[in-house]
Specification:
This protein has 289 residues and is an alpha+beta fold. It folds into two domains: 177 residues, no CATH class; 90 residues, Alpha-Beta Plaits (2-Layer Sandwich), CATH 3.30.70. The chain contains eight helices and 14 strands. The longest helix has 14 residues. The two termini are 15 Å apart.
């Protein structure tokens, strides 16, 4: 992800969002606001062509939309815990795509309630789930597989629906290919069947690259799930074939936070509860490159 170019683009969004005429700013009627995210109609977006209509209740749903070269992905329910949202935002803001997580309220007329992102070996994509609201867009729309791609700039495009796609046009098109019936990635195994308020999945680092990998990518596959639970946070970490450095980092976390560790034939699983005031520190350690 080109962090400098994205930062400039975000700055432009924040300036333009102050003006009522910004292209993707819209509005909901009181009836639309009352319906909420689960009962609103996709037609309320007011965008021609086919709109995305895909489940988005876990990271597994996200993986099912991504092509083969996906490397790392995350998914978060922004409605579950503000403390968790803040901790995730603070720890990934400089390492993973986070436009919807950090700036969703500046982009759309309706609140972004769930966010996901995927990093590929050559690009990235974001997924934004929100209540349908009128999109007031006047400009070129690019037809693709019966969908309408809306260019934001020379580098970023979106396709509306639930979830909406945001990212480079070429990557948006590849995800639309999967949604339209082509094969999704099958390289991930640990996230499927898991539910949590925040989920992250990553494949290990297999070659010299400047891509982001949690824990330095020293593993075959990693899964992280965190859920708000009373006044604490339930944590689960699953890791296949960690190298010695990753193994040591995980054991340090276990010992420092009184978690439970189980191992079996190159597989590590960590479970337990994290106190609210320790959440950002634990996330920072687990997500550190």
């Amino acid at each position: 992800m080109k962090q400098k170019a994205l930062a400039i683009f975000i700055g432009l969004i924040m300036v333009l969002s102050a003006f009522a005429g910004f292209v993707l700013r819209g509005g909901e009627s009181p009836a639309e606001e009352a319906r909420g995210v689960d009962t609103g109609s996709l037609a309320d977006f007011g965008v021609p062509g086919r709109l995305i209509d895909w489940p988005f209740t876990s990271i597994g749903d996200l993986l099912d939309t991504c092509p083969e070269n996906l490397v790392t992905a995350y998914w978060i329910d922004l409605e579950r815990s503000q403390n968790l949202t803040d901790a995730v935002r603070a720890t990934i803001s400089s390492i993973l795509p986070n436009v919807g997580l950090s700036y969703g309220e500046n982009i759309y007329a309706t609140k972004v309630e769930r966010v996901g992102a995927g990093v590929f070996n050559d690009s990235w994509i974001e997924f934004h789930w929100m209540a349908p609201a009128q999109v007031r867009y006047e400009g070129l729309m690019i037809p693709y597989e019966d969908y309408m791609i809306i260019p934001w700039s020379a580098e970023y495009s979106t396709v509306m629906g639930r979830p909406a796609l945001f990212g480079p046009q070429a990557t948006v098109e590849r995800v639309l290919d999967v949604i339209s019936g082509r094969s999704s990635t099958d390289r991930f195994s640990l996230p499927y069947g898991e539910q949590a308020d925040f989920q992250l999945a990553s494949l290990g680092k297999s070659s010299t690259t400047d891509l982001y990998f949690p824990l330095g990518g020293g593993f075959q596959e990693l899964y992280l799930g965190i859920s708000a639970q009373d006044d604490a946070y339930a944590l689960i970490v699953k890791c296949i074939s960690p190298n010695s450095s990753t193994d040591q980092k995980l054991r340090v976390i276990v010992n420092a936070h009184n978690l439970t560790l189980s191992t079996s034939d190159g597989y590590i699983e960590i479970t337990g509860k994290i106190a609210s005031d320790e959440l950002e520190k634990v996330l920072g350690t687990l997500l550190s490159p």
